[in-house]
């Protein structure tokens, strides 16, 4: 039986990503557990960023934010366990957050919701579990336990002192108040119990990852979540991203291929080497792809480097080594389809950005494990890595600006990433093609070629 | 998804001038000159998962019949498949070689001085062999023994420190009498120790053997052992305690151990039905099924139905021929790009005769090292294995699965399940229209081959005698299977 052509094409383009099997029909509710300043929001945001990047629609529901919307913060007294009025407000907020979770799952195609709150009493957790059972959601608890006073103090300094709750406070006041807030919770805190909670699915993280307890992992997504959580760390470090130096193909306006560096490309590589040395980076790892141009670039650095096939540029299939003009000439329909959905579009006998993300997942996982790393890669690859680190959507990803001869230094800070652009002052062609106005298959060649950057 | 094996090679380079690059003709890897006599430096070409300079010693911990050997063998098989040279050292085997004849559980009594001496000696001999193995290019050694006392573990840790090995403990804790009984039935009764025993006597003796260890058993402790790196597996994977994971390979080991299970199930592997390009003798491409291929698909549907499998998952690649095959089976299926056939790059859709004609050098090099050889602008079997690692990981998590894939892909998957080496892998026989049913049993896998009685071309090309670049065309084409 012959598959109808269009349907086959659709399947080829739009199916769920290769290595992530189809999702279980039940959405998953991840429930954070832990005293304040144990990294719950840090974990929630990071996990959400990761899941969205690999293609699992995920959203954080932070109870603190719901609370701030209905009540301006005065002091820790709000959190006293005997504060009846406050208790009512907090319960109502939790209820509203869970209602939004229902909307997210049923109307917004969400797959995972992260309920970011302390959830420190068994009573609260029991009510969440019944709620989930009633709705047919799976539940996975993530508990963060930490008794290292240094880590807690660092947390508070990093994110609490600058919270909207403490806008009009000075640092010492904020710190003192926050510590009293933590005390309020300690009195009623019941951690997940080995015996009583043995049927729940959860991971307990001790002291920022020195130890984990994993109980009843029930499915693929939970297994991936556990693996991710076990690989992240909070040790300060920086990730440097750069493309290879300008290549001979770049000069000709051609995509793909495996050419060497142009003279300017070599200059950039030397400048990059000088820059790296000036940073005095401790124990820097350097990663390249298997393609000549990234390796040539790394050769200038004078540091050992590792080659990753996974970092190779996106495979443009039948369009390899063509100029955009040639693609328009030979494959005008493909060219238009790509402009319609650049993220999902797969070159014939090639790859899509979506494929790239899957290919790069192990790179991301290892980046999380590592400390200081310089990744010398390619335009599409760098866009994918950057989108992960800066939480960009799949719509934004293929249009992120990653010009040649510019290194990016990314340093995790608070809940996100600080980005520093380092332009090393060596000219290079522009390889960034914006989405043109007209993406219809019926468009004229001029309309298609409007946004092509200059080349020789 | 997933966690795929990544190849990494460390390359030191000159501070002053960048070195000229040359592309290794076999693996198409760019490397700096100079190379020894124009050939790649073996060390540089190694693709290894982890580049820790230290080898790793994995140490199992647990009472008898807790699955230590099962885990050791499975983990070893997985690590070797992803390219990490690994070997297990089973102290029980050393004991059998030393003792020759096993009499009874009395040997294991804690007050049996002579027994203790022999056992300690065996452990020492095993550790010596570990040292040798790790010095000779091994990357991971799995020391499979009970190691139930803190004292014993301290000795091992000291040994590892002396030799610069990292240590990772894998403890299996289980108190479910049914699971333990099932263990004993599956693997102990058939052990060389009990060849001349009937089932009841063997069972009795083994239970007493376990008792000998119970009194002195010191489980890994949260406080006392907090500086050790370990995973504690409880109740066959319901629960895990993971402590101080030090590096990449330990993280991968933990991930793997947390994904395996022992629920009985079967994995069905087959290729797509015969395709139009198969008939022509062409490799690669994305053609549809031939008439015989379509017929096979129908028979596959009948076969699957006859197996009466509850909850069968069906996976295909994203190539037309596997999808067409799955469509006929009429069960929901999932498409995996990772299951696509090996990319033959510039040789895609060529017949072997054409490859010989246009790329005789490439053709010869492929015959020289079929596992590592990468087609120009294509892939190698080695690349395929990396690409397939997430598939294997998900296969481990699942229960009944039918994988409809391709020749090279099926060879890689089969090599994983049947513990085949990199040399054997590219020559495993995976003919069209034949389903392999794999059922885990004891420490390995039972294989049933089911030919569905629809004729198809043979696509298996044996390694020819002459693999020299200087060979004649006829010598190269000697083993090409017949086609239209």
TrEMBL record, chain A:
Active-site residue numbers: 244, 313
Record InterPro entries: 6Pfruct_kin, 6Phosfructo_kin, His_Pase_superF_clade-1, His_PPase_superfam, P-loop_NTPase, PG/BPGM_mutase_AS
Pfam families listed in its UniProt record: 6PF2K, His_Phos_1
Domain 6-phosphofructo-2-kinase: 18-236
SUPFAM superfamilies: P-loop containing nucleoside triphosphate hydrolases (SSF52540), Phosphoglycerate mutase-like (SSF53254)
GO CC field: 6-phosphofructo-2-kinase/fructose-2,6-biphosphatase complex
Binding site for substrate: 243-250, 293
Entry's Gene Ontology molecular function annotations: 6-phosphofructo-2-kinase activity; ATP binding; fructose-2,6-bisphosphate 2-phosphatase activity
Superkingdom of this protein's organism: Eukaryota
A GO biological-process term: fructose metabolic process
CDD domains with a match to the protein in the record: HP_PGM_like (cd07067)
Keyword terms: ATP-binding, Hydrolase, Kinase, Multifunctional enzyme, Nucleotide-binding, Phosphoprotein, Transferase
Function comment: Synthesis and degradation of fructose 2,6-bisphosphate.
Family from the record: In the C-terminal section; belongs to the phosphoglycerate mutase family.
Subunit and interaction comment: Homodimer.
Protein name per its UniProtKB record: 6-phosphofructo-2-kinase/fructose-2,6-biphosphatase 1
Gene name in the database record: LOC109869383
Automatic annotation (TrEMBL), chain B:
GO MF terms held by the record: 6-phosphofructo-2-kinase activity; ATP binding; fructose-2,6-bisphosphate 2-phosphatase activity
A Pfam family that the UniProt record links to this protein: His_Phos_1
Record-level GO cellular component terms: cytosol
Domain 6-phosphofructo-2-kinase, chain residue ranges per copy: 50-264
SMART domains: PGAM
GO biological process: fructose 2,6-bisphosphate metabolic process; fructose metabolic process
Binding site for substrate: 271-278, 321
Entry keyword set: ATP-binding, Multifunctional enzyme, Nucleotide-binding
Active site: 272 (tele-phosphohistidine intermediate), 341 (proton donor/acceptor)
PANTHER family in alphabetical order: 6-PHOSPHOFRUCTO-2-KINASE/FRUCTOSE-2,6-BISPHOSPHATASE (PTHR10606), 6-PHOSPHOFRUCTO-2-KINASE_FRUCTOSE-2,6-BISPHOSPHATASE 4 (PTHR10606:SF14)
Family per similarity comment: In the C-terminal section; belongs to the phosphoglycerate mutase family.
Name used for this protein in its record: 6-phosphofructo-2-kinase/fructose-2,6-biphosphatase 4a
Organism name: Oncorhynchus kisutch (Coho salmon)
Gene: LOC109890986
């Amino acid at each position: 039986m012959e598959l109808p052509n269009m349907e086959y094409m659709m399947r080829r383009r739009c199916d769920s990503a290769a290595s992530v099997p189809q999702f279980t029909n039940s959405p998953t509710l991840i429930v954070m557990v832990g005293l304040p300043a144990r990294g719950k929001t840090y974990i929630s945001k990071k996990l959400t960023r990761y899941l969205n990047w690999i293609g699992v629609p995920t959203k954080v529901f932070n109870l603190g934010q719901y609370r701030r919307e209905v009540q301006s913060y005065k002091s820790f007294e709000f959190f006293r366990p005997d504060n009846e009025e406050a208790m009512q407000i907090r319960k109502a907020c939790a209820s509203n957050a869970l209602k939004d979770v229902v909307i997210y799952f049923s109307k917004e195609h969400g797959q995972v919701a992260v309920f970011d709150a302390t959830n420190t009493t068994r009573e609260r957790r029991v009510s969440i579990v019944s709620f989930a059972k009633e709705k047919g959601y799976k539940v996975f608890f993530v508990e963060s336990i930490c008794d290292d006073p240094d880590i807690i103090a660092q947390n508070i300094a990093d994110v609490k002192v600058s919270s909207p709750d403490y806008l009009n406070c000075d640092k010492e006041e904020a710190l003192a108040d926050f510590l009293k807030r933590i005390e309020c919770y300690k009195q009623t805190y019941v951690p997940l119990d080995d015996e009583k909670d043995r049927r729940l699915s959860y991971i307990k993280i001790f002291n920022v990852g020195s130890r984990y307890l994993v109980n009843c992992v029930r499915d693929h997504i939970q297994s991936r979540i556990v693996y991710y959580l076990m690989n992240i760390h909070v040790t300060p470090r920086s990730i440097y991203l750069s493309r290879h130096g300008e290549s001979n193909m770049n000069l000709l306006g051609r995509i793909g291929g495996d050419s060497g560096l142009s003279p300017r490309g070599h200059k950039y590589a030397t400048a990059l080497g000088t820059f790296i040395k000036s940073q005095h980076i401790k124990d820097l790892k350097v990663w390249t792809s298997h393609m000549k141009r990234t390796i040539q670039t790394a050769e200038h650095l004078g540091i050992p480097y590792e080659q990753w096939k996974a970092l190779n540029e996106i495979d443009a299939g039948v369009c390899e080594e063509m100029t955009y003009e040639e693609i328009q000439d030979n494959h005008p329909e493909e060219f238009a389809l790509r402009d319609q959905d650049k993220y999902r579009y797969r070159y014939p006998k090639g790859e899509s950005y979506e494929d790239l993300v899957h290919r790069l997942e192990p790179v991301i996982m290892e980046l999380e494990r590592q400390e200081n790393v310089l990744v010398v890669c390619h335009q599409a690859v760098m866009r994918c890595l950057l989108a992960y680190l800066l939480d960009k959507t799949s719509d934004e990803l293929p249009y992120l600006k990653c010009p040649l001869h510019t290194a990016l230094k990314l340093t995790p800070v608070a809940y996100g990433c600080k980005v520093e652009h380092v332009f090393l002052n060596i000219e290079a062609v522009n390889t960034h093609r914006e989405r043109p106005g007209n993406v219809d298959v019926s468009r004229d060649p001029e309309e298609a070629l409007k946004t092509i950057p200059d080349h020789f | 998804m997933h966690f795929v094996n990544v190849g990494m090679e460390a390359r030191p380079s000159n501070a002053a001038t960048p070195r000229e690059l040359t592309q290794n003709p076999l693996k198409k890897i760019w490397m700096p000159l100079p190379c020894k006599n124009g050939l790649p430096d073996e060390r540089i070409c190694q693709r290894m998962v982890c580049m820790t300079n230290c080898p790793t010693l994995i140490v199992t911990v647990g009472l008898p019949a807790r699955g230590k050997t099962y885990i050791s063998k499975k983990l070893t098989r997985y690590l070797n498949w992803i390219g990490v040279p690994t070997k297990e050292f089973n102290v029980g085997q050393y004991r059998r070689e030393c003792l020759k004849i096993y009499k009874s559980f009395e040997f294991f009594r804690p007050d049996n001085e002579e027994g203790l001496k022999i056992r300690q000696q065996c452990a020492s001999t095993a550790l010596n062999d570990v040292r040798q193995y790790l010095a000779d290019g091994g990357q991971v050694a799995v020391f499979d023994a009970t190691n139930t006392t803190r004292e014993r573990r301290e000795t091992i840790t000291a040994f590892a420190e002396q030799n610069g090995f990292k240590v990772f403990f894998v403890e299996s804790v289980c108190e479910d009498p049914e699971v333990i009984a099932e263990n004993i039935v599956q693997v102990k009764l058939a052990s060389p120790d009990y060849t001349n025993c009937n089932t009841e006597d063997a069972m009795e003796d083994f239970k007493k053997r376990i008792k000998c260890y119970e009194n002195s058993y010191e489980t890994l402790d949260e406080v006392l052992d907090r500086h050790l790196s370990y995973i504690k597996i409880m109740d066959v994977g319901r629960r895990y305690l993971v402590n101080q994971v030090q590096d990449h390979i330990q993280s991968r080991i933990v991930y793997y151990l947390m994904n395996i299970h022992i629920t009985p199930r079967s994995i069905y592997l087959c290729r797509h039905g015969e395709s139009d390009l198969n008939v022509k003798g062409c490799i690669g491409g994305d053609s549809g099924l031939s008439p015989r291929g379509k017929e096979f698909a129908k028979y596959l549907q009948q076969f699957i139905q006859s197996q009466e499998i509850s909850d069968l998952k069906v996976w295909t690649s994203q190539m037309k021929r596997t999808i067409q095959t799955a469509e006929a089976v009429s069960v929901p299926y999932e498409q995996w790009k990772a299951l696509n056939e090996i990319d033959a790059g510039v040789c895609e859709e060529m017949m072997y005769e054409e490859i010989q004609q246009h790329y005789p050098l490439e053709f010869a090099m492929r015959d020289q090292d079929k596992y590592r050889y990468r087609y120009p602008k294509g892939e190698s079997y080695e690349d395929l294995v990396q690409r397939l690692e997430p598939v294997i990981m998900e296969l481990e998590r699942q229960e009944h699965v039918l994988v409809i894939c391709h020749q090279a892909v099926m060879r890689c998957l089969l090599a994983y399940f049947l513990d085949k080496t990199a040399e054997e892998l590219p020559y495993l026989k995976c003919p069209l229209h034949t389903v392999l049913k794999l059922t885990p049993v004891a420490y390995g896998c039972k294989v049933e081959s089911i030919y569905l009685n629809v004729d198809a071309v043979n696509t298996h090309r044996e390694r020819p005698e002459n693999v020299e670049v200087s060979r004649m065309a006829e010598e190269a084409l000697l083993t090409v299977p017949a086609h239209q």
